[in-house]
Design goal:
By secondary structure, the chain is an alpha+beta fold. The protein has helices spanning about 5-15, 55-60, 60-65, 95-100, 105-120, 120-130, 140-150, 155-160, 165-175, 185-200, 210-225, 250-260, 265-270, 310-320, 365-375, 390-400, 415-420, 450-465; strands at about 20-25, 35, 45, 75, 80-85, 90, 205, 225-230, 245-250, 280-285, 300-305, 330-335, 350-355, 385-390, 435. The strands form five sheets. It has a seven-stranded mixed sheet with strand order 6-5-11-12-13-10-14, with helices on both faces. It has a two-stranded parallel ribbon with strand order 1-8. Strands 2-3 form a two-stranded antiparallel sheet. A hairpin with a 2-residue loop joins β5 (about 80-85) and β6 (about 90). The two termini are about 25 Å apart. The site of flavin-adenine dinucleotide has 41 residues, from α1 and β10. Flavin-adenine dinucleotide binds near residues 400 and 439.
């Protein structure tokens, strides 16, 4: 139930085992938070939610899914990520050497020392971190080596490894994807994971938009004999047809609401105590021309982190964690139409933008976000033809999984990275036999990688069908 990337991945994994699989979705299209829509003007195609897909590129599920046969085409922007600091930008290039070079001699060497061992073993490390945490790893040595710095706060790691502002700022932007304050335990893990992915596989975008990922997953599922029912919002799991296994692509709050009367009290209580993280405020732009970044490298990058120096990003993320709105928010920008001419009319462009806000925030952050972008791209406002604004509530109205605007299916602090949604050796299994959770509220968490769905399907297969 639920045709997001994880619901689709679970459905495909079980259909590959020749099971009869029905996928039920509330909306009139599949994809969940991987969708592309005409949110502004005719001819402009916007990624309403996910836009940039390093986690799909490293995912064992995606790598084995053969989605290219169903029309999915990945595009690698020449530079995965640029991070402007006044008129200059620091960049994450796919090449580790090129990235290290622009950080200066001392920080370049420190960056290489930090990243090189992980990049060399990226496949083995991703294979372990994209599965449940409470199990014996396949590659214990590589994982232990990765785990030590990953458990640090971003501030501790960047402060101990780097002397200069450029490397620290680059790492702050990567770590801020955690939605955690940058002095929180394990906030460094997000920086390491995204940096490692950038060097190992790049930060690709899907040609035509992230909706094409969902379309390819849906086509693959149907080719395996699976059935999809759209426009079917489920209000209680008793409405679902009888099945030997039911997998819910939902977050704990909805599961308590939809299935609470079937869950034993202790388990229900554990799900009810699950915590959600901050939300996002989302903007999509139709532009008359590319964003006029001062730094030339920003014009060749798929993603731009806008927020300045480490301490500036840390200050804005700290406020959000205290349920306050930052005056100068950390802003994420993607500019897919620079590399994909299917996204906008000739010569025109789209921009995908969000910033972090307190959960459930109703504040319109447009003015603050645009002021931040103008800091590094003066004249940005002059190229705007139209904009779409989505508050946390708008996002949740479109997809009930986005509780309070949380895009990761729940807070990603250390306790909930490990105990997701509860502490268990098999976190996908609920305490009702045959009922499983397969959403990003299970390990490995948020992102379009399908691994929550794949792992949940593997658990159901083992418990029910393999005997
Ligand atoms: C603004 C935004 C930006 C993001 N950017 C990125 C990015 O750049 N890269 C990246 O990798 N990830 C990104 N993400 C995160 C990523 O999109 C999610 O982590 C991922 O989609 C989670 O997949 P899922 O299958 O667990 O859940 P979802 O994608 O949320 O899918 C859940 C599905 O269940 C359906 N559903 C819910 N309730 C019911 C019901 N009662 N009955 C029937 N169906 C129901 C929903 O309609 C939905 O289709 C972003 C997310 C958002 C919102």
């Amino acid at each position: 139930m639920g045709a997001g990337p994880n619901g689709l991945a679970a459905a495909i994994t079980l259909a590959r085992k020749r099971l009869s699989v029905l996928l039920i979705e509330a909306r009139d299209t599949i994809g969940g938070s991987a969708r592309t829509e005409a949110l502004t003007l005719p001819g402009f195609l916007h990624d309403t939610c996910s836009a940039v897909h390093p986690m799909a590129a490293v995912s064992p599920f995606f790598r084995s899914a053969g989605l290219e046969a169903y029309g999915l085409e990945w595009i690698q922007p020449p530079i995965p990520l640029a991070h402007p600091l006044d008129a200059e930008a620091v960049v994450l290039e796919q090449s580790l050497d090129a990235t290290a070079e622009q950080l200066g001699r001392r920080d370049g060497a420190a960056y290489r020392r930090l990243m090189e061992p992980f990049v060399g073993q990226a496949e083995a490390i991703f294979d372990d971190i994209l599965r449940p945490f409470l199990r014996f790893p396949k590659n214990p040595v590589a994982l232990a080596r990765f785990g030590l710095p990953a458990l640090l706060s971003a501030r501790a790691l960047a402060g101990s490894r780097f002397k200069g502002e450029r490397a620290r700022a680059l790492f702050a932007g990567l770590a801020a994807h955690s939605f955690l304050p940058l002095n929180a335990t394990a906030s460094a893990s997000f920086g390491l994971v995204l940096g490692m992915a950038g060097h190992a596989v790049g930060w690709p975008i899907a040609k035509g938009g992230s909706g094409e990922i969902a379309n390819a997953l849906g086509a693959s599922f149907q080719a395996l004999g699976g059935t999809i029912q759209l426009d079917r919002p489920i209000g209680n799991i008793r409405e679902l047809p009888t099945a030997r296994a039911t997998l819910l692509d939902l977050t704990p709050r909805q599961i308590v609401r939809l299935a609470g009367d079937r869950l034993p009290g202790i388990y229900r209580g554990r799900l009810a105590r699950y915590r959600y993280g901050p939300g996002v405020f989302k903007l999509d732009y139709a532009l008359s021309e590319p964003i006029p970044w001062l730094a030339e490298s920003c014009r060749r990058a798929g993603t731009i982190h806008v927020g300045g120096f480490f301490n500036q990003i840390a200050a804005s993320e700290r406020l959000v964690s205290m349920n306050q709105h930052a005056a100068d928010p950390f802003v994420l920008v993607a500019q897919p139409s620079l590399f994909d001419d299917t996204r906008a009319p000739e010569g025109r462009h789209v921009a995908w933008v969000y910033c972090h806000v307190p959960k459930g925030s109703a504040l319109n952050m447009t003015e603050r976000v645009e002021r931040q972008i103008e800091r590094f791209a003066p004249g940005f406002r002059d190229v705007i033809l139209a904009r779409s604004v989505l508050t946390t509530k708008n996002l949740e109205d479109r997809n009930a999984n986005l509780v309070g605007g949380d895009i990761n299916g729940g807070a990603t602090d250390i306790l909930q990275l490990i105990g997701r949604p509860v502490f268990s050796l098999n976190p996908y299994r609920t305490s009702v036999p045959g009922l499983y959770i397969c959403s990003s509220s299970t390990p490995p968490g948020g992102g379009v990688h399908g691994m929550c769905g794949y792992n949940a399907a593997a658990a159901a297969w083992k418990d029910i069908f393999s005997k």
